[in-house]
User: Fold this.
Amino acid sequence: MESVRPSHSSGGTFRCSQSCRLKAGVAATVLERGKPVQPRRRDLASLQRGLLSPSSNYCFGEGGAGTYSDGKLYTRTKDRQAVADVLADLVRFGAPQEIEVDARPHVGSNRLPRVLTALRAHLEAAGVEYRFETEMAAVTLSGGKVRAVRTRAGEELPADAVVLAVGHSARDAYDWAAGAGVAIMRKDLAVGVRIEHPQPVIDALQYGRAAGDARLPPAFYELAAVGCGRGVYSFCMCPGGWVVPAATEPEGVVVNGMSLSKRD
Ligand SMILES: Cc1cc2nc3c(=O)[nH]c(=O)nc-3n(C[C@H](O)[C@H](O)[C@H](O)COP(=O)(O)OP(=O)(O)OC[C@H]3O[C@@H](n4cnc5c(N)ncnc54)[C@H](O)[C@@H]3O)c2cc1C
Assistant:
């Protein structure tokens, strides 16, 4: 979640020196409800044993879900330049160079945290302030404009503009934003299940007799079907990966999948 103050602004919590003006000419403070990557890693280990921290898990913490996602960078967008810019930025911060040319670019869950840490170092050097374990819990509006954000701890932070980038798991944020009069638009969503197949089974189906050849990568598949007016499709296949617990609420059961860069 970013809270930004335009460069022409004076005074207030997010003021900072000329050196911290970023590309778009604003000084920014990032409020993150979770922890930085390293301590977050320990909470993920606890999660593997069934202990969920509601603010530090596969979705919440530095870099959000993206930090521990599989890092598959596929998109159907036709704006290739925007995609190329994102890939170039990822390479600049440590992702493998092949992603700029691969048809199915993939970074891997083991590499993503390093990329995010390098990105934070770059932004901090440019003057961005990060505040971890700081949950935004309310927004103050007046005259149709945002004036401040309030943290869960009760701190009031003046702001000229607030970018809410809370992801879809921050259901509490949608509640308080709607309560404060922020316009919220419904978006269609797909509902899915995650299926775990032994990789040798997929390899045998896709490669036939060549399955098991060390020169072949773990096989991939894609399926789509339409029936009864609805489409069903495979999404987010993680060759050579595994299923991880991606819940953020103690009573919730949510799974996702990820693989390491070698997909082994
Ligand atoms: C295991 C896993 C594998 C995935 N694999 C892929 C993949 O291969 N390819 C792909 O495209 N997508 C993948 N995804 C999905 C992808 O990670 C998400 O779609 C993407 O990260 C969403 O980005 P976002 O910026 O909208 O939100 P998020 O990444 O969810 O970030 C939201 C951030 O806001 C913070 N936050 C929330 N509420 C507050 C608050 N009130 N105050 C302060 N901070 C707050 C959170 O802590 C978090 O850091 C995967 C997800 C998971 C969990």
Observations:
- The radius of gyration is 21 Å.
